[in-house]
Specification:
The protein is α/β, with parallel strands linked by helices. The chain contains 8 helices and 8 strands; from the N terminus they run H-H-H-E-H-E-H-E-E-H-E-H-H-E-E-E. The protein has a single domain (about 10-165, about 205-245), classed as Rossmann fold. It starts with a helix and ends with a strand.
């Protein structure tokens, strides 16, 4: 081993052990729409609509195509127990699901087996990805990692040339603090301790991280809440938002 190799820094692990422990405790009822992950079940339909529209726009597929991801590799980073990974597989993708909590991965494997869906589930951080992937999804994850900049670079490195990255994350605003922590966690709608408001990223901050990682942000859309319609895609980013990005070259 030469001197430069010996002195090379160890790669950082993106996983925050406390975060992994917290979410691992939620694994048992992740698929229960009335359980501790009920909010994710309510978020999932508009997120899926956004993802499907982004897929159709990026690859030119028609909205009625059943398997627009046929022949493509997809990775869901921070997959939990598979709430998004399974729909991606149904759209035809060869899916890899990665989560920091081993308990979530076991729950995901069990549910996929019960559903007859073949997904490659792995416990770990972004380091467990073996790209390139045509599609990388990362929903409500970057606000929980140990090093957001390094994590963003890992997402970019996992993406194939011509690939598509889709993320969602809470915005760091007074509204998100009130809605998600004061009300959400305070009233038990979200498990207490799920969020650290100080780790939330604004759209400008996330855009900067992605650009530094070699990506170009193609769209930012709000994920807002309406008392009459529930969660919906909108122009209002104060609560939560979704981002699509592509390689800049």
């Amino acid at each position: 081993m030469n001197a430069s190799a010996a002195s090379a820094p160890e790669p950082r692990n993106s996983v925050d052990p406390k975060e992994a422990e917290h979410f691992g405790k939620l694994a048992a009822d992740w698929w229960d729409p009335k359980g501790s992950s009920a909010m994710l079940h309510r978020l999932n339909p508009p997120r899926l609509r956004y993802i499907r529209e982004a897929i159709d726009q990026h690859w030119g597929s028609a909205e009625y195509e059943r398997h627009p991801l046929a022949g493509k590799r997809a990775a869901d980073i921070g997959c939990g127990a598979g709430l998004l990974a399974e729909p991606l597989a149904r759209l035809g993708a060869d899916v890899t699901g990665i989560d920091a909590a081993a308990e979530n991965i076991e729950a995901a494997k069990a549910h996929a087996a019960q559903s007859g869906i073949d997904i490659d589930y792995r416990a770990g951080g972004i380091e467990a990805a073996d790209g390139p992937y045509d599609l990388v999804t990362c929903m409500e994850v970057i606000e929980h990692v140990a090093d957001p900049a390094a994590f963003a670079q890992g997402l970019a490195d996992a993406l194939a040339p011509g690939g598509l990255l889709i993320m969602s994350t809470p915005n760091r605003t007074g509204l998100s603090r009130f809605a998600m922590i004061t009300i959400g966690e305070g009233a038990g709608l979200i498990p207490k301790g799920t969020h650290d408001w100080n780790k939330f990223l604004t759209p400008e901050e996330l855009t900067e991280l992605l650009e530094e990682a070699g990506l170009r942000v193609a769209d930012i859309s709000g994920l807002s809440f309406s008392p009459s319609r529930g969660f919906e895609i909108s122009e209002r980013t104060a609560l939560n938002y979704l981002v699509t990005a592509v390689p800049s070259t």
